[in-house]
Description:
The protein has helices at 13-20, 24-33, 39-50, 54-69. The protein has 72 residues and is an all-alpha fold. The protein is globular and about 35 Å long.
Amino acid sequence: xxxEKAKGPASYFPSIERTYGRPIDHWMxxxxxxxxxxxxxxxxxxxxxxxxxxxHANALVAWHxxxxxxxx
Length: 72
């Protein structure tokens, strides 16, 4: 196991899982279903529909979009 700290959006993941009780894979599936929306529309959806805070929602959307761009 690596002792290296997560950087960027992934640094929010432990807090997101702890706060909202769902694994990151759950949020990636939600975002996959709304992939046609723009970045800020996805952030708004997570905030309004799922009660996420802005920073957490933005981190999830940024991570999801980076993975899409990388072909993951």
